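Field: COMPLEX_INPUT
Field: COMPONENT_COUNT = two
Field: RESIDUE_TOTAL = 663
Field: MODE = joint
Values follow.
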Amino acid sequence: MGGKTLFDKIWDTHVVDVIEGGPSVLYIDKHLIHEVTSPQAFAGIEKRGIPVFKPENAVATPDHNIPTENQHLPIREELSRFQVDKLTENCNRHGITLYGLSHPYQGIVHVIGPQLGITQPGITMVCGDSHTSTHGAFGSVAFGIGTSEVEMVLATQCIMQPKPMKMRITVEGDLSKGVTAKDVVLYIITKMTTGGGTGYFVEYTGSAIRSLSMEGRMTVCNMSIEMGARGGLIAPDEKTFEYVKGREFAPKGKAFDEAIEKWKELKTDVDAVFDKEIHFDASDIEPWVTYGTNPGMGTGITGRIPQIEEIETAAQDSFMKSLKYMGFNPGDKMEGKPVDYVFVGSCTNGRIEDLREVADFVKGKKKADNITAWIVPGSKQVEEQANKEGITGILEAAGFKLRQAGCSACLAMNDDKIPAGKLSVSTSNRNFEGRQGPGSRTILASPLTAAAAAVSGKLVDPRDLI
Amino acid sequence: MSIDKFKTIRSTAVPLPIENVDTDQIIPARFLKATTRDGFGENLFRDWRYDKNENPVESFVLNDPTYSGKILVTGKNFGSGSSREHAAWAIHDYGFKIVVSSFFADIFKNNALNNGLLPVQVSEAFLIKIFDSIESNKQTLLEVNLEDQTIRLLVTSETEHFDINPYKKNCMLNGYDDIDYLLSLKDKIKVFAESKS
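Field: COMPLEX_OUTPUT
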């Protein structure tokens, strides 16, 4: 019998039961909850008259719907306020820990999980949000679920899941200067296409992946869903242990040493077999941007949008529909596209390293006059750290302002909406039509590329400016 | 709590021959503020159905009264993106019982099955046949038989088999839901949970 993959090792030790020919009953260690995908689930268990089985295994925070200015005031928009209040009521009623808007731990679910040490190697973790894959960076099996499944986890701490197939993506080599984790994952998604990972759980490996910081690894795992993959994970190593150490909910003292011994076992056996193996060379990766309306429509910053002949016949209509929406033409060069908005933030790139990267770049420069920039920390702790490090001041001197923590313009559920027709360079994860506001147009990019656009007023190669 | 039992459906279909339709198109994020499961159909494909002045876009298929039916037929990789179950709720609430495509995103597929909306995955070739048939006759009837796992173009009697997990098939046919099943395993889960802590 062959060896096991990292994914198998975690999955198999969480299977409570297997239905013949059907899904597995998978036990969930940690459940993150936010205001948008949970109210119907709480209503569901209440209607059935059953309690939350393990409230101690869940943590909740409002993030999707909240304003990123004046968070001390009541939320102005009635429906948003009602939804956030509903989360508070539900958590209070069912004994679930809630980091509400005024709490110093509040933030985007996928930013606070790792930050508080809730995310740990070897666990299963779910949330009613597709970017739950972020937590795979620690060597955990983490993925997004729908509201019916949120209800299942509340009721039984389990969900019914068919075991996905396994894919390994290896990126070997050194990343060149100006090429970041975001560029790596945007490159991978372009090569894999937006549906190329569907049905799979992906393990990322190779020297280029290992060279990334924990936050960089989170950025990579975060966007696994953008190629359709159920999730992504990276084997834990010394960087992982060092990151987890000392965090609020991480094991302490002797328990931590014991945990590390267990976590060291969390790697794919050399003779394990994947259903699919993909290899990339890090030296092929340049700063990467999208040009279309799904994250698989990308190119190097120095590249051009494909010509129609380069697109397979069946996909040509969708390709042209997408370019029409973006106001671009086949063959267009990406460099030089005039930009209106820059958004730095989200569960993909709203962590402290992202803000440091932006601050380092804009220090001593000025925001271009034609640019409106929203820089949104992923959590209150990130905001506090940015203040402590002087990042907030550097940003202000360059003409930017740090807002308050939340999902913000990544999905524009709050007031942070890019106006119709405007072009945004965004560090978030989706460039779907209207994603950042009805009629908005989005180019996905790294924080560095976004910062370069913010000071240049147009899309430029950040390597020319560093 | 049960979902409706799924019966064999014979219906005309609404064609949406676009690839990679993401859940932000199916139901834009600004309509996710409700705290109940009802009423999302009103905003199904909102930004394709209405222009920025809230006027119906006449060329969009849901605004064309000559198309109707309980079956939505779409291009490949339907339902990609966000895990929002509101997408499945919106399609179901609008009145569709079946979505046909050559490829579905994983989370959408699970969400659909958990809400009595049947995702039917067909071959690329069969999908093209369906689109062509509807294009030449909007009254084209499709029949979906879950018991036999078949989808049939009535005009030519061409039939294709589709896959569905046998557990999920049983749930759909009998109107069972996963939570009822999981609750029946509660003792076993409790023992497992204790071994984990």
